[in-house]
Amino acid sequence: MKLHALTVLAGILSDPLIAAFALADGKKSRAQFLRRLYERGAEEAFAAYVAQAVLEDENVFSRTCAAMRRPSRYVTEAFTADLALLREALAETEEDGFCLGKAPAPFGDAWDEGTVRRLAAFYKKHGYGRYLAHGAFRFQEGELVPILSPSETALTDLKGYEREKAEVRDNFENFVEGLPYADMLLYGDRGTGKSSTVHAMVNLFHDKKLRLVEIAKENVLALPALKTRLADEPMKFVVFIDDFSLQEGDDRVSTLKAALQGSMEGHVGNVMIVATSNRRHIVEENFSSRANSVHAGDSEEELLSLSDRFGITVLFAATNKQEYLSIVRALALDAGLKTPWETLEALAERWALVRGGRSPRRARQFVDHAYACEKKGVPLER
Asked: What is the phi/psi pair of residue 210, to 5°?
């Protein structure tokens, strides 16, 4: 019951297992605790489970440290006292039916002032709370919902488009380093790696406290609320709008324009908007309505100005045959394919032509198919 005296770390009691542990002083409550313990698979290392809950708890101490500020001595003392309560509760536990184990770094065994200093340094470097457990989120109904299986694409997985990737990387680097940066529009044909490039950059700079927040194109009207929500967080965020396009007269046109440095709110220093589209001008123009407009030129400029609000636009053009086969070769080398290159080249070209054209996506699909065929001993011609 002493754990109910927690102050700064009171949030860990929302974890059903830790809440059951706090009440496990009788046979019935002990049985409930053990049942939850086994369900969570924490019976071999309960101390590590508690330590992880502390590490990921969102509280005034972790948030202040993540924001590169020093908590007040009152908060620090309360946080230290909470760790002492947890250390005492764990030390008094009878280990019948489970094993406490050891807490991982940066905790150690003492859970004392040294642990507090190590945790403060950890939060300062890596962030806090949900942003430690997850690198990507969706913005849905006003909430940040973790993406449980985010893309693990690395920059080395992406072949070709070296100039385009360098331009995108340079802007991402400026963003995470606190240098001048710009919102970005990546546009071009399908399958050219626009979205994969964004995911790879977020993964590359994850250790710089960069996280991705995806917002569906249907929810763009919520952009101002999202930017306001993220502005107070001690992290960097890429707000990602994938496969984006709009129609003339859509209310989202003005909302997006305002979000792209066009409102009194200005540039939120920890938020960068990145959109991908198959079109350079993401508003699909209606020429019939344009013809009936008294100020047709003004209407056209109004629509084109949306794309211009993105400070950086990068074209991912369709690949020609030479570029396509170069990507296939690079992917085949990574995969360790043993099929002779002449055979791969001919089959890769046929694969692309039958399936609608050459692109990095087609190259990846072909190499994956070839790899599976080799592993199964099936002729690649099939």
From this structure: -100, 130
